[in-house]
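An example makes the point: we print one protein in full, the chain in one-letter code, the fold tokenised, without further comment:
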Amino acid sequence: MKIMLMRAVTTMFTSRTLRNLRRAIHTSKRKLTGGVPTVHYFHQPDDPYSHVAAQTLQPLLRRYRVKLVPWIVSPPDDAAAPERERLKIYALRDAARLAAEYNLEYPSGAKLPDAGLVSALSAVLAAALKSGKFIDIAPAAGKALWAEDRASLAALAAQHGEASPAEVASAIAEGDSQRKRLGHYLSGMFYFEGEWYWGVDRLNHLEERLAGLGLDREAKGTPMIAPYRDMVLRTPPAHRGARPVIEYWFSFRSPYSWISFPRMRRLAKHYDCELRLRYILPMVMRGLPVPGVKRMYITLDTKREAERAGIPYGTIVDPVGPGAERALAVLHQAVKLGRGEDFAELGLRAAFADGIELASDRGLTDVAKRAGLSADVVKTALADESWREVAEENRLALFDAGLWGAPSFRVDGKPAHWGQDRFWALEQDIIQSIEGRNS
């Protein structure tokens, strides 16, 4: 009964019908009250992704008939950012790569800013909020921070004013309160009538929604400010050496792992890469918390991204605990038998699209059978605990790569990427690796 209820609830919760109904209710309320379509933007002064996102605010206002309300906020708490120091370091290089992809600005070689510079920036941004000039000032102020350009930041303060420490604290407290009230925990976030959109990566969903409401000033077909990015499968360069090796960290409890797995296999096959599966235990089973508000956002965000990628998603039976462990045990044997990729993909699909319980003998055996594995193989796998050693080795390798979550990947030892929305970067790395071998 519990599993049947879980299937029904998750199918309904992630359905496009319910999403459209929620949107229609928000639109109706706005029109009935005579409100203006309003996008809220939450900016963390020392967050690289916020700096990149802030550069899209003016283009958004010019293009769409909306009101844009900015807020400044504090970093997420430890439960929402369990590996904070790794995240800070990773964000520096990932934001630079992201900015380059979208033709935005991010200083090369940026380092973690010192507390004094962050305080100075926060004072400028808090004053800009009060004067209504945040959207105009934030990009230049952020550039000064990440370039460690104290003179430019001081000039902005002299020209536009700076808030007192008490005023900064008040502005951040107000932003945090609003973010919590609306139901989120991150920065670099856009909110519009019931839905959240993370930074430049998810701006395409917001733009599509605004255009669907007739709020786009540009003609239909005009490219978005921040269009969706994915792999494009270019004509592969000819190999003249060993095949590139893609290391791919994933978890059976990660919905983003599911919607990345079929695409990863397609990408590896297209460029004739060796795909090395590096499975890990789910974060919560490794002692890293995943708060409820984070799980809710991830579930709904994965649905939008799955639709973009053409991958089924939404009938979910959470495999956390025994389900994930049993699936990893079978996967460990499947890899030895050359059926690892098939079982991993089918196991992920079972959990997040087909609503199959991996914790049950029937569910696990059914998935294994479809992957070409017999019931005897499943029985043998469940009696073998050696998968735990491999999962731990993979976890340590992931930490050595500077990351901690799934899905993550890299090719030929290059810097690793985190997230199913970085296939465009991995593809570029693969091509670069092949061409480097050929030179």
User: Anything to note?
Assistant: The longest strand covers residues 38-43. The radius of gyration is 23 Å.
